[in-house]
TrEMBL record:
It comes from Phytophthora infestans (strain T30-4). GO terms for cellular component: transcription factor TFIID complex. This is Transcription initiation factor TFIID subunit, putative. InterPro entries: Peptidase_M4/M1_CTD_sf (IPR027268), TAF2 (IPR037813). GO terms for biological process: transcription initiation at RNA polymerase II promoter. One of its GO terms (molecular function) is transcription cis-regulatory region binding. Transmembrane segments: none annotated.
Amino acid sequence: MVQQLLNPETDADGGQWRTFRYVVNPQTNCSSIGFAVGPFRLFVPPEMPRMTHFALPECFEDLVHCTSKLASTMSYFEGTLGASYPFKTYQQVFVEDLPDQLQYVAGGAILDQNLLHGPRIIDRELPSHLAQVKALVGSWIGGAVGIQSTKDAWVLIGVIGHLVNTYVRSIYGEEEYGYRIQLAMDALTTMELTTDQQSPALLSSEVDVYSEYDPFSV
């Protein structure tokens, strides 16, 4: 995404305002366009200047702590997939009252502010990081997997979940990977037992197979 600041202007009442224009150069479907507006503070990791993180001022210290690993995650997927991130920059913003835990868009992601935490809350470390990994992967391949209808959404969700699990297996080892697979199987069993002898839906609003690693959701 490219930002351009147009010349500041003054309206008839003497008030000054500025116009920002944003352009996404790669071909992107309109459903992948998203933005957030607020008095955010930003953090740019020195080792990954292509990446920018945003949060409200009172959450800035937690923002720096929670996003410290994502630069290496970007490098991991670029090496694993053998391709660069398809957009010039990656930007993620943490906001309040998000309907879902995360939403990935072209060149970035919008995440729930509740994912942020301080260094003393160690049990939130892995869920917070993996939510950011999922958002990064979703932003990466969301435009590459064609979704013709909501019935096709399971393909995208499955590919993202597989890549996230591959990352977990490489970084956190077989035990954590196996634990996630077991939780996914338990989630699928729950779906089958609650369908009243009908074929289980490929997507369920009650169970998110690839979010069950969060200890607060099980």
